[in-house]
Amino acid sequence: MPASPERYLEVQNSEEFAQLRHKLRSFIFPTTVAFIVWYALYVLLSAYARDFMAIKVIGNINVALIFGLLQFVSTFVIAWYYARFAAREVDPLADNIYDELENGTPKAEAAATTDGGTD
Amino acid sequence: MPTGILAAEASTSTSRSLTITLFLIFVAITLGITVWASRQTKTATDFYAGGRQFSGFQNGMAIGGDYMSAASFLGIAGLIALYGYDGFLYSIGFLVAWLVALLLVAEFLRNSGRYTMADVLAFRMRQRPVRTAASASTIVVSIFYLIAQMVGAGALVSLLLGIKGDTTFLGMDADTAKVATIILVGALMIIYVTVGGMKGTTYVQIVKAFMLMGGAAIMVIMVLAHYKFNLSALLGDAAEQSGKGSAFLEPGLRYGVETAGDAAKTFYSKMDLLSLGLALVLGTAGLPHILTRFYTVPTSRIARKSVLWAIGIIGTFYLFTLALGFGAAALVGGENITAQDKAGNTAAPQLAQQLGIDYLGGDTGGSIMLAVIAAVAFATILAVVAGLTLASSSSLAHDFYASVIKRGTASERDEVRVARISALLIGAVAIALSIFAQSLNVAFLVALAFAVAASANLPAILYSLFWRRFNTAGALWSIYGGLGSAVILVFFSPVVSGSATAMFPESDWHWFPLSNPGIISIPLGFFFGWLGTVISKETDPEKYAELEVRSLTGHGAH
Question: What is the pTM of this model?
């Protein structure tokens, strides 16, 4: 069940939620910029650095092909690393806030809770 | 000579009946699943979101089934076979794009939406105008995508029926046979969607994903075995057969072509490459039929898991395209491919036929492999077409009918009934339009759909999720601005008129030099979204608090 608008505002302004948002955004935004730049580099080299892309490395396998395959590798690695990061660092924070919204207090730290939104 | 022709005809007819049999088996199985699914489809959640009970693995496979369309299988293989390395650019863009979906969209969308993309876009906005806009862009994107699939089906059937140039089959010439196929595929997709809803469609996607991966894997192993698993030898042979030497293995034969002495032409060609690259990487996370897949799982964590599975299966498939494309260039040859289909859409099935001749023995072997792979390709097309039709009819019913026309008073039953009628309508429109696009490569056509999705939908989705200030005006400006600029630029591009391969080759009203509008229309979508937002005073901090908290924690998720 969704909570009241005031409650959501309160949670949004809480310390805990700020921490969750910070943790998540400081991973997803820089990573997005990084892989877009990496991909853009590949596309730009394909357009403007033909001689470099044409260099043969092993047999008929040239830089262009290796660069392309590296895009696959980076995609797999980023996806795997994000899943690990999210499960370890983000999910527990999100669960805590979820429990707090659902039950009024976070399960783990019901006693030590500092109700957010005071500053 | 006569015996040769007779043998060829006999082989075509074996292949033809075998393909038809295999295809009918696939249709029978999937129709069975669809009918079974329809018995379990009672609520709107069942129809739109498959009851939200699929596992991460199942949905991952279904995403793969939805995403690896005729463009991936027929289109990319054809482009690599004809232009070499440049076709591989598509594979890379289509895959890397999944990171945008994984990191920025999938989980948040699952947490805050219900059935359609518009649920998230309209969350904190005025419902009616935003849902109307989202519905319009959903339908436009889906129709672009549908046209590509139908064109693939048409190309495939003329190969199977052995129709080239002006030969005939059952009294039908090539064009009539293609149109007949398009109508058949259209009719089947309408049945899947109207009867089975999301549940039936999802199972169809899963079956198709396994068939496609299996079929492609067999071909890849055969191609590689031919070269004793030496990739370099395969590439060398492909380059030699192409007649273009090592340039075939480098970027530049199709995109970013350097025309000596014509600086403007070179410049535009390079811009077209960048434009394509941008559209591919940003389009995926704006495709309505992909976005609705995230609603079929119970939680955002499972949505994340399903994207990981999808990246695995899709990535593997795109690696396969290298062997398929270069294999077709080496073993079938560019001339044989263009003789069958100018845009190269039949390279993969022609390769299958050749592999059958080499490995299974003679024309019969060739016919068997051709039949199997053609059936896989038909299954591929059918599944994607069903997914697209479902997404667009859901949007028409849930966003436009229920929220805009009925202002939220429609019953679930009514909504689902309208969704079924919409599927019929959209199917009919797509059938009619595809008849004009027969001369275009399907991967290229899909790239246009990606450009439209990236321009119209992605800016609005990202602003909605992450920008506090974003408002109704911003959403409308970004959707209509992105959609309008993309569609207008395509209409005035060499794709529609003024070139030999255009939809209307006889006329010329083009003034936009690029064939993909992404590099202009995507930034415009973001710009309009920003502009619309800042000139409107509307803000709703409470609703944004709700959206942000819910999207990050999954609280109150449907």
Answer: 0.90
